[in-house]
């Protein structure tokens, strides 16, 4: 039981950020907590783009992902890890938003831009988790407790520069992410996919408010 509680609490190490990357934070509201998905803030509606403007958007352009992780942190020191995570995030944006409209290589007059930045990366501690797992026969053991995760800020900008939807998504390892406790970056890489799903949900909220069709979250 102690091990389960410890894993459930492991995701608390990641938190939404307000780094200054997004064009607007004013309308962001707390999102519900998912036991296996982490805490997040999500802007669930748009107050600027009109239904007519939203209806005119015919494609998405995904800008290169910015890396705003503290270079002195464990998660920010590796250039190869930076490249993996930025590539993962861009690919999952393509998978999720591509269910709604085409993804283009260069923006046109009716293209919405997707901006994103990875602002925090937490690495799991596999060796420590292995040792804790090996002692689980003890009634006082905790099991693996050192989870990883990541925080991403992202927004969709209309062709005239207005913010359609935005998120600050923090996702950490939870009870159903047990294998990720034994890999440094697995929880962080999963966070990229979860962020893309949350951005699609925020876009859906905006389009729902405008009375336009919504898209389903893409599954593997």
Structural class: alpha/beta
Spatial gap, N to C terminus: 31 Å
In CATH, the architecture is: 3-Layer(aba) Sandwich
Shape designation: elongated
Low-pLDDT runs of 5+ residues are 1-12
The number of distinct helices, counting runs of at least 4 residues, comes to 5
CATH topology: Rossmann fold
Number of strands: 7
Helix residue percentage: 25-40%
Give the tags.
single chain; 220 residues; alpha/beta; Rossmann fold; seven-stranded mixed beta sheet; 7 strands; disordered N terminus
Commentary on this structure:
It contains five helices and seven strands. By secondary structure, the protein is an alpha/beta fold. It has a single domain, classed as Rossmann fold. Strands 1, 2, 3, 4, 5, 6 and 7 form a seven-stranded mixed β-sheet that branches. Strand 6 (149-157) and strand 7 form a beta hairpin. Helix 3 (79-97) runs parallel beside helix 5. It starts with a helix and ends in an 11-residue tail after the last helix. The model is unreliable at 1-12 (pLDDT under 50).
């Amino acid at each position: 039981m102690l091990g389960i509680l410890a894993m459930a609490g492991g995701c608390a190490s990641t938190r939404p950020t307000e780094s200054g990357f997004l064009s607007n934070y004013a309308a962001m509201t707390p999102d519900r907590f998912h036991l296996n998905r982490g805490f997040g803030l999500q802007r669930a509606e748009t107050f600027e783009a009109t239904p007519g403007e939203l209806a005119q958007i015919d494609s998405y352009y995904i800008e290169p992902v910015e890396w705003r992780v503290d270079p002195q942190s464990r998660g920010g020191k590796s250039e190869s890890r930076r490249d993996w995570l930025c590539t993962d995030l861009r690919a999952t944006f393509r998978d999720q938003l591509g269910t709604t409209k085409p993804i283009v290589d260069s923006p046109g007059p009716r293209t919405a831009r997707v901006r994103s930045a990875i602002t925090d990366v937490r690495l799991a501690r596999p060796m420590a988790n292995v040792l804790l797992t090996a002692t689980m026969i003890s009634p006082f053991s905790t099991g693996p407790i050192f989870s990883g995760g990541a925080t991403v800020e992202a927004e969709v900008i209309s062709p005239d520069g207005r913010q359609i939807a935005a998120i600050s998504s923090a996702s950490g390892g939870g009870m159903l992410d047990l294998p990720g406790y034994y890999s440094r970056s697995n929880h962080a890489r999963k966070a990229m996919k979860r962020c893309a799903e949350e951005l699609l949900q925020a876009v859906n909220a905006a389009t729902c408010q405008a009375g336009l069709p919504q898209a389903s979250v893409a599954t593997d």
